[in-house]
Amino acid sequence: MFDGPEDQNGLRNADEIRLWVHLLNGALGPVPDAPFVLMGGANLDPDRGEGRRHVIASLLADTRLQDPLAESGPTVDWREPRPGDLRVDYLLPSADIRVLEAGVFWPKAPDPDARLLVFNKVRASRHHMVWADIEF
Q1: pTM of the entire structure?
Q2: End-to-end CA distance of the chain
Q3: What is the mean pLDDT of the chain?
Q4: E strands, 54-117, where?
Q5: Helix axes 53-60, 8-25, angle to 10 degrees
């Protein structure tokens, strides 16, 4: 899925994720003041699919962060059977933030909210919104 035997895309993806660890360690300037939230699409599942899964697993295990969506399941709907539905989108609050609730907005028919993800018969995105209610 990533690319050929040289793994340039896989290596770049791993470096993009490692950037956040460097930021948290202060290697790119001052350490971010808490509270903060890291969020976005990492395009790497910690358990399934191709890529250097240990890199995202390491970020998710960082004690300065929390992973309120760890048990939420996939966040992207890619073609089956490979790569299939994977967890590649993340919302990682700093450890000092109180997470009240979190989830993945992925309504499927017949849920009436499923219509919110389609316009003129075109699906909004294969990625689904990750969200959290937080308090700090």
Answers
A1: 0.88
A2: 39
A3: 93
A4: 76-77, 85-86, 89-93, 98-105
A5: 20
